Amino acid sequence: MTSFYDYSVTNRNHEEISMKDYQGKVVLVVNTATGCGFTPQYKDLESMYEEFHDQGLEIIDIPCNQFAGQTPGTDDEVHQFCTLKYNTQFDQMTKSDVNGENELPLYTFLKSQQGFKGFGKGPKALAMSAMLKKIDKDYKDNPNIKWNFTKFLIDRKGNVVARFEPTEKMETVKQAVQELI
């Protein structure tokens, strides 16, 4: 049976990074974008990283341009944006697809472990649902990543324990991370 640790991704320096490097850590994998309404979540992610990194939290940032072209820059431009605007210090990978025929195998695995369960409640959730109905009327019935800043939480044993849609409050994500730390 495959596990989280059987996968690898390429960092922005074009080096292959094995998920085995994260064994024993709590990991948050996030598909990100630099020009999205959810981009300010970088601030919350960095704050969480600073608070919990010494206790074993790692964040894997995978920029993705599949959602309305909201990550148009090169890997270096994306990195400069994140470090200058949000002072990010966590690992940033090369821009990659999270859905479709060119999706990272890591994402195929993550989606198989934690499918889409809805956007929750509130104005952002309603707006996301309305927008996605226009793009894919069957969006509720597949595990695909729906938008930027979808997060997967992996425990210290490599189990994918949660999926958070971008509409989820960052405080809820932080609380789930804290419970695993």
From TrEMBL:
The keyword Oxidoreductase applies. The active site is at residue 36. GO terms for molecular function: peroxidase activity. InterPro entries: Glutathione_peroxidase, GPX_AS, Thioredoxin-like_sf. Gene3D superfamilies: Glutaredoxin. Keywords: Oxidoreductase, Peroxidase. One of its GO terms (biological process) is cellular response to oxidative stress. Pfam families: GSHPx. The keyword Oxidoreductase applies. PANTHER family: GLUTATHIONE PEROXIDASE. Belongs to the glutathione peroxidase family. This is Glutathione peroxidase. It comes from Absicoccus porci. The lineage of its organism: Bacteria, Bacillati, Bacillota, Erysipelotrichia, Erysipelotrichales.
